[in-house]
């Protein structure tokens, strides 16, 4: 992994939470990012599940202090489009060797999804030491992650899928977890109804939890 990639991992590790956002239209991207920043998380993984995803990445990439990743990247072509739009890092639900190869060849941090020891063996083959554990809760949550990571002591994880306020802390307490991903702070209903204050509230609570507090401490 290059210095650039390691620095990007360090930034994600410092934030401890990566909000996963599926954006309905590009018009809400700026206010969504403002709300995340107000809550204390200047970062988003924008999924390519909607047409507006790439345009939102492009818009947010103009903000120097905001880390913007692309999620749901299924192939190398999409990775290239996301990077061309200004994505700082690439995330995928699964392990596509061609996507990973393209990212490594282009000095772009890629965090592919893994769900088994076989996937982890592939990640090792590519020299990766950070992967996404997805879908975390459905796969067995913290006990599964502990069991899975046992034979791979150098591997770090970004669990995503089913993580909410009530289970965030138990994942973050694991030394092999650099950060957790999740959509609960930017629920699709918040964006659809323009409830940006709810994004601020959920994000503020999450940041507090990540720092060991409890939402009731607010
Ligand atoms: O599809 C899954 C999302 O990327 C993240 O999962 P989540 O909605 O359970 O947080
Ligand atoms: C779920 C996930 O990992 C993604 O959409 O990138």
Automatic annotation (TrEMBL):
The keyword DNA-binding does not apply. Gene3D superfamilies: Aldolase class I (3.20.20.70). Keywords: Carbohydrate metabolism, Lyase, Schiff base. It is an enzyme of class 4 (lyase). GO terms for molecular function: 2-dehydro-3-deoxy-phosphogluconate aldolase activity. It holds the Pfam family Aldolase. It catalyses: 2-dehydro-3-deoxy-6-phospho-D-gluconate = D-glyceraldehyde 3-phosphate + pyruvate. InterPro entries: Aldlse_KDPG_KHG, Aldolase_TIM, KDPG/KHG_AS_1, KDPG/KHG_AS_2. Pathway: Carbohydrate acid metabolism; 2-dehydro-3-deoxy-D-gluconate degradation; D-glyceraldehyde 3-phosphate and pyruvate from 2-dehydro-3-deoxy-D-gluconate: step 2/2. Signal peptide: none annotated. The keyword Lyase applies. Belongs to the KHG/KDPG aldolase family. This is 2-dehydro-3-deoxy-phosphogluconate aldolase. The gene is eda.
